[in-house]
Amino acid sequence: MAHCFRFIRILPLFFLSTVGVLAPAAVHALSLENQMKGLESSVKTIEQRRKSSLRDMQINTLQAYRDAMRIDSVVTKVGEVYDRSARIDVIINYSFDFERSKAVRANLEKYFRTDTDKQPGVEPYGRIYTNFSDCVGAYCTVQKEMTHFLQWSGVGVNAAFLGQRGTKSTLDRSGHFELYPGAVTFQFIVPKSKIKGDPKVAVTAEVFDYHFCSADPECSGNSYTVRKSIK
After folding, report:
1. pTM for the full predicted model
2. Fewest C-beta atoms under 10 Å: which of 92, 132, 181, 214?
């Protein structure tokens, strides 16, 4: 009888513990409608973060990097003369404001870890390296979009002369932001009839969209167009 009495006491405890496990699941189960609304809200949050992050990257990283660039000098000279045209060489020297460049890196590090070409704490550094595979916190949800955005962006010198344009980007597709002073030479072949007096070269620093152009025989493999503002 003692053995039977022990079995009877254990059975209700097992039964109660089973009910205790199942009951909360039944109480807290979400309807399909509520699951749908919850997922929709989550998706909207990620989409809002994507839009705000892209806009922030455009303004406070790319445009800030553009604004840190200084055009120090522009030299224009005739490089060679042909029967009906002439080659005009345009030499542009540029540099960067390092204090502004530090703000560029600070904003970039909201999204990705970065390195420089100097030991930590040593300034000024001459290049910022973006580690696309090492995202930061909540922004990892938009890592793919942000990486794509930067890889298809350019920042640098834009020169226009008598209807022709030359572009030099100091930001490459690996996310390397150049900060060393540099120079670029553009060569424009223009009809002699267009050269009247001393035509000037329009030189600006710009943010660009990067394009492949392998199908275009006049393109060297890539091209840039000035980017419109992101709303």
Report:
1. 0.77
2. 214
